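We now fix the convention by which a protein and its fold are recorded. These numbers are not coordinates but entries in a learned vocabulary of local backbone shapes. A record is reproduced here so that you can trace the correspondence yourselves:
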Amino acid sequence: MPISVLSALAVALYIAAALALALPLVNRASLPRGASLGVAGIGVIAHGAVVFGAHSGGLDLHFFAALSVVALLTAAMTLVVNAARPVAGLGVIVFPLAAVLLGIDTWLAPPTHPADRDWQIQLHVIVALLGYAVLSLSALLGLLLAAQDRALRNHRLSAGLVRVLPPLTLTEALMFRLVGAGFVLLTLTLVTGVLFVDNLFAQHLVHKTVLSIVAWFVFGALLFGRWRFGWRGRRAVRLLLIGMVVLLLAFFGSKFVLELLLRRTP
């Protein structure tokens, strides 16, 4: 099947799943959550076929291709999370975003090809992308948690996405579990970088390395504060979002400057 057709199929399935999950938000009868997530699951499979088919079966880390890969992993992680906890509200945000990033990579971005990398560097990259996807999902949960907290304070628990979220304590617990998993993956990313990358502080990597270390300290402080002082609510969400912004700058900020502004290959 042509890549453009697979992309169109994945985009359509993502949008259909998001709309089905969003039906309760407009006071309409909702479709079975399992069916909606099943549609999204087929979209994830089609998206995965596009990612590997469009880039010669390799792991392409050019800016738009990397965005599409992270979107794929985040969408897949959303399905995994929903298998354990009913957080359909995540899909309303994640699936349309995945559709947009896939569409940009397929139809708007210039064609690119994966660079040759040995298995050690590929392992480092895969761990990094998984960590980024998990922490991205935790940040989205943090935003939803902030919305829940605000709705609770204003006595508006029946408004917007809050209506399709689990109780606030469950949302918060899930957020911290994802932060913990993402922190482990980020730690492994730094460790494999030290072991496998020739010069982690080379000129084109120093900003990425330093910002990743800063993000690691921020997430570590958040988890320590949660364990030692019981941090929660706005303070926890604020620190989580700060860490996520730093990590965003470390990976995609540096790629944007190097590839799109300075025209250097990754």
The chain has a mean pLDDT of 86.
